[in-house]
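TA notes, week 10

Several of you asked for a full example with nothing omitted. So below is the full record: structure tokens for the whole chain, then the designed sequence directly under it. When grading your own attempts, check the secondary structure regions first.
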């Protein structure tokens, strides 16, 4: 088993961040990726570029992917999103 002192976070991905090619183009390499569901939220698209965000809505849900990424990758993601 591989152990690392590097800290990690879970990132809930929607939209283009579901696509492995999009991740690679941003130099992001998830350690683990698993299906996920956001409960009591709906996905809301806005803007001419199709940006999306999760907005609260009781009883709604939508699917995405949970990516386990390093803190360093999260910093990269924060700088581009």
């Amino acid at each position: 088993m591989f152990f690392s002192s590097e800290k990690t976070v879970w990132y809930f991905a929607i939209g283009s961040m579901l696509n492995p090619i999009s991740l690679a183009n941003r130099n992001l390499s998830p350690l683990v990726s698993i299906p996920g569901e956001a409960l009591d939220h709906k996905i809301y698209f806005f803007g001419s570029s199709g940006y999306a965000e999760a907005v609260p809505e009781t009883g709604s849900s939508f699917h995405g992917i949970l990516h386990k990424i390093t803190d360093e990758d999260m910093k990269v993601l924060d700088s581009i999103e």
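The beta strands are 8-13, 32-46, 51-70. Use that as a sanity check on your answer.
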